[in-house]
Amino acid sequence: MGRQPCCEKVGLKKGPWTAEEDKKLITFILTHGQCCWRAVPKLAGLLRCGKSCRLRWTNYLRPDLKRGLLSEQEEKLVVDLHAQLGNRWSKIASHLPGRTDNEIKNHWNTHIKKKLKKMGIDPVTHKPLVSNPSDQPQSLQNNHQQKDEQSCSTSSANAAKTRSVNDLVDSVVINAKEEEDGTSCTANASMLDTIQVMDIDSFCTDEVPLIGPSDILVACPPSSSTSSSSSSHNNSCGGGGSNFFQELQFPDLDWSYGDFGDHNDGDNQHIKLWDDDHFINWDFLVDNVDDKTQMVGPHPANSCQRSALDQSSWTNELVK
DNA sequence: AAACAGCTCAACCGCAGACGG
DNA sequence: CCCGTCTGCGGTTGAGCTGTT
Prior knowledge:
two-stranded antiparallel sheet; elongated; disordered N terminus; disordered C terminus; DNA-binding
């Protein structure tokens, strides 16, 4: 007898996730936490299988994910770990906080493998190749390198796309915040400094002008927002062409993510949404949510007034 | 401007291991 | 120990994007 499929295949949606689906999933997990993936789609009102939901969450929506290309250090670490562990991507990923096995696997296949081959190293055995490419004329090697650098720069555009996902998570939380107390927050530069936890330097900033969870900037919406507008940069490839922002608030703000690298334009008010430490685990968030409120309140790092609070005090506030 | 080729990476598939009854 | 269920993992695919001609 064949194994039962992981889910009823009939009637289930496949392919890229839409912003609406992302929103549902995020909202559900914020409210109920991660448990029983098989039940998630039903409860969240998604026409997906649980597996797909889990994958979408772990590989793309989780707020503690780093985004953007792997830094030099991370790349080196991946190579070292691969030499020790082989294709055990999840094990390798466990050594790189904020990175998923899928991401590392993709990066390995598209970048590192080529680099190693170019260096005359067999990416499988980590030993010198028989026919050593280092015998190639220098000019040829330079060509290769240029091409790689090119691909880096183009991938920064791809990295840019990923921001919309973080935006999306932001939006859900901020919506919750506004629903809860009807207040908006204001940016506080000194506070933003204190919120920064992540080691941004570890990023390959020459390649990608982003992005760590702690580096997510959120514009503070006016409290009486009803109309909608958005930056033109809400494309979200993985989400399958999101106009999520258009459905959301923040009308009077310039979400100037369109041109990356200048997201810290001084005229707009931004706050950091959250930092790594707070989202190692969602459970603290969810466990303390009053079921009747359904939506969780703001994360401390999301609230200008709360950034200095520890988790417990923040959750205590939540349930009030 | 259009056609084509190459590349990237989100998402899928199937298998294996863990776990509980 | 067996069986069924669920989750996690690694390999693979293909849509969409970018660069080149």
